[in-house]
Please model this.
Amino acid sequence: MQIKCSSCATPYALGKEQIAQMAELFRSTPGAHYDAHCPKCRKTTKISKKQFALNPLYKKMLEN
Model:
């Protein structure tokens, strides 16, 4: 999953482990958000369930 840092605008990818953690978080807590840490500036970018579900592959992960 490609995201862009909300602070320094550096694009970076999240790994499979982080995506699995994110899907588990969204399944267990409906109103939660995931904090992704930028590798350059170390600030967090919040990812909502709505943003995560925009990708059809990740949407299927939420349904299982």
The radius of gyration is 12 Å. Residues 2-63 form one domain. The mean pLDDT is 92. The first strand starts at residue 2 and ends at 4.
